[in-house]
Batch of 3 targets.
Target 1
Amino acid sequence: MNSSYDNSLIEYADELAINYKLISDISYCVENINTYFPFVGERINFRLLNNTKFVDSDQEHISFDAVNFIKSLLDKRICRSDDVVIYIGDSLTNNGYEFYLNDLLKIIPFLVSKIPQHHYVLFKDFKKIIYISFENEIRFGVIN
């Protein structure tokens, strides 16, 4: 069942004509995150990942910084615009959403400004992840 945040996200993506695939059962994605990524407490331990990138932002600039962070991954050829990613929130959205990374750039400002939760962008190969925290931290890492 969709939450009100899911409905808002779907409506926004449809307005922008962004192609996405709704994932109503995200347990497989969460299981892969828990299996393949190292944790310290309840958070991914990015220090144990390869090719890590970190940015701390503030509430006023988080949308801008998140978009620029992802663009820098594209510019450095760490990621490609046609990479398939899965967006998962940690509490307010019930569904996952599969996008192309380039389309995710268009919707990131909405996600971080309108849905107050931790945001996970898992690459379809389950080897790369972007994390945008509710505390305005932006992290990226790659597993071996």
Target 2
Amino acid sequence: MHFKHLVLLLLPFILLNCKADTIPLYVGTYTSGDSEGIYKFDFNTETGKLSNRQLAVAVENPSFITYSPNKKIIYAVGEGQSSAITAFKRNDDGSLTFINSENSQGKGPCHVNVNESGNKAVVSNYVGGTVSIHSLNENGGIEKAPQVFNHNEAGQKPAHAHSAQFRNDDLFVSDLGRNRLYHYKLSNNTYTLKSESIVKMEGNPGPRHFSITKDGNFIYIINEYGGSITSVKKTDGGFEQIDHDSTLDENYKGPNKCADIHLSKDERFLYGSNRGENSIAVFKRNVNTGTITKIQNCSVHGDWPRNFTIDPTGKFLLVANKKSSNIAVFNIDPTTGKLSFNQDFKAPEPVCLLF
């Protein structure tokens, strides 16, 4: 066979293999500066390179974004003029098309999560201190919230709901203002309060985000004000605290606000972001007891790492540095869990990364 004919025959397979190494990364931003909304990059899962930046949709302050289970819909919230959760349809070219918006029933929505069935979304309203639960219809559209929980109490400091996660029939909500991780339980399609806090949070740590193991037996809470992670274990009667660890290097004495937290794909390691120290704290996790030990504080090669994520292969960790307007990519050592800097890319005020 002539070489030219062989190349033409193999070209579709070559292109398919090249495409298989590239996956989309959507980036939520603040739009007060150069940003216009949600951006899409191509991410190479072999090299860690980001390329082909495009504006997926223009929208005000999409500061947190998440997928529907089938990844056909992206839901966004943001601290804009209107307090809303918005649904967008993903198109074949990577762009997003507006479906609808619904009032989030509280000021300053900062986080959204969708349940495994894809029929409910929960929004955490930071300024309002409320949590709204929305039904989602078959085309991904958002319905008015049939349930809204208000964590504010008369005579107490303001509530600041910061993140929430569905897990089977459980709903957990981290409230930074009330220093609690609320636990709600689903029964007859309605959520009711199971516990005002699964563990007692001493002082004013400011629980912000949390990560749950796949078996549901351990929860790791990152504390914004405390610069720490509270480790919690599920028991027969509820939950108990098993560990409490600083996220900061022992030599760092400056101001700091923790932000995000994620387990590695194999759950042997835990990562948390420090805004101020501008680092990712790396912890080795005992998979039997659930306790953690800090093994590294890695510079984020930028300023103010609000959010980070691990790519689907588990080989790379990507950090959204808000103030320096860049996304830093790190290699994850599969044996030690430690990070090493790979490269970084410009992005306007990135604050949320979604694979």
Target 3
Amino acid sequence: MTPESLFYLLITIIIIVFLIDSLLDILNARHYNDEIPEELSDVYPKEEYQKSIEYKRANYKFKLVSSTISLCIMLLFFFLDGFAWVDNFARSISDNSVVIGLIFFGIIMIGSDILSTPVAYYKIFVIEEKFGFNKMTTKTFFIDKIKSIIMMAIVGGGLLALIMWFYEITGKSFWIYAWALVSIFTIAMNMFYAKLIVPIFNKQTPLEPGELRDTINEYSKKVGFQLKDIFVIDGSKRSTKANAYFSGFGSEKRITLYDTLIKDLNKEEIVAVLAHEVGHYKKRHVIFNLILSIALTGITLWFLSLFISNPLLSEALRVQAPSFHIGLITFGILYSPISEVTGLIMNVVSRKFEYQADEYAKNTYNSEALINSLKKLSKNNLSNLTPHPAMVFIHYSHPTLLQRIKKLRK
């Protein structure tokens, strides 16, 4: 294969991925006006259902326009030899390959962030604001941006620098050391994310003593779930949308409830949601997902090690000097079809796990309370009740509301 043919293969992959994603969105949009199934007839009042359709359409049109613009900018960057220009600039600053790589990715990330910021701003302050979801101020939006950039520079830059250094000193064997590094980091994030990362953006407070906490503790004892920490996070600082999640394992496990969840649901419904989260832990979904994620990372890094030293990867992007950072860009695009397949498999597994967690909540607590909570959350989030089956199969990590209700009542 010549550099020129590889260049056009990269372009083809980018366009095909875009077209498939857009086709799914178009198919999904055609189902917005579908009749609501009888099991979901009590989710939306008529005027609220019309509002949910308008919300879906607004997001669909915006995504179609923004993703098309992003595609055009990306293709323009490719055809104008943007990667070669950034690489030359980085090399004019330093002769150290690791420093060159960090400067290169730093410029790419900053450029990408500058282009994506107006998109995120419009999404939050126009669409989310229009439909009553947004609670974020402009100040919070930009402070979050700054915090994210600093974290990416420190954490992402540190990991990337170590991986490039491993490559410099070990050659093709770098993937083993990189895999060990990423695995340790992934485990640490799973254990300490709620303690280290969440407080940077949100305030977490222990659930106050009272009837809700007593009921939760009573349920935890009943199912043999040692729960040391129940926290409430100030999700209302940014949005009216509600959520709950389980994090960590071993002595570091904790359940976090959004303050909006406590506001929207009654005591029985909140405990039912918590029972679902406990189900994930009891069924060892957290550990399985962690192992699967680490395994996929190892496979990806191994594939990367087979190709990264090939100068064709750099030459395809019109960069004359072969380098790890340019090869990583080319490999990432070439690997994207495989990533789509592994992502699809992960979603299939995730949906199965959601059914299992629902079943656990049904058997240990109350299925109707869980159903009521799911209906309320769907209504408050203006969720799509009639998605296209192809969209569900490819992109949904959770079964649809209708599928979950049918399974719970089976």
